[in-house]
User: What shape does this take?
Amino acid sequence: DAAAALADAWSTDNLRLRPIQAQIAAGLATVAQARSVLAMQSKNQELASQFDQEVLSQLRNWVENSPENAGAHDRLAAALLKSGDMEGAVASFDRARQLNPSLPVTDLRLARSQITNGNDTAALESLNRAIAEHSQDANVLASAADLLLVMGKLDETEQQIEAALKLDPNALPVQRLQAQLLRYRGQWESAAEKLQKLNTENPTDFETANLLGMTLSELDEEARRRALSLATVTAQRFDLESPQGRRARITLIWAAYSAGKVDAAKQALNKLLQTGIESNQISGDEGFYLARLLVEFGRPEIAAPLLESVLSRIGSFPKRAAAENLATQLK
Assistant: This one.
């Protein structure tokens, strides 16, 4: 408010005015988005809609005052997509990519939103367009494979992984996706072998180490001890206040519990709860493991809404069936 008042006091020919107005609009949009999320969590749809309109208004102000800012166009596109303005969203996504070609292609952005909204038919159409138009781009094919995996389209995922690896055989994200596909198919030992190789070659990669820790915890006693050792090292690398740090702690606590270190797991869980968990920052499997721990240690009132959030936000994941069963038990 103080910044807005200061900007209002400046003359329209002040060269600093538009940049300041752009920053103000971006900040107000962020605040309105956060309030919309809180309203939705409180199941107040009318209030959430009001905040969504405020988001659109402020994002349009941001674009008007910073027309060459790719991030502004990108955020406006996402908000337009949420509002149902597909034509406007596509135009804004396209403009954002003109300004910053490193941004995801428009059809991939559309597909992600369509998956979130439960429109798998439209999502597949968007993905097929992206694949056809960018068949020689390993990054696009890998992103398409990732989205297909979330949709539970395992055979189609495998096809795109193979195509991406032909273009870039050493791409770590694609190789990790290959291991994730094995997890989806319940081939835990094969997934662990693949991830162990990737972890050895890329020891500082968080996603690989964290995924390996979760995978090893699904195997025999010796593997679970390895999971605990690896998860301990991984968690030590990240501060508990960071999203990666909290995700690493979930894996560590689950690994400790799986390895029979129940008291240590309980103590670590209590410490994690004091820090707080954002359900939109964790994977489906991490959400399931955390919910299992919460139930085991007498906190079902936290586990139930956590599972509800994870299941509504994420499509397919290896532990989804188990998560759905647990959610049913908690009702």
Summary: The longest helix spans residues 17-41.
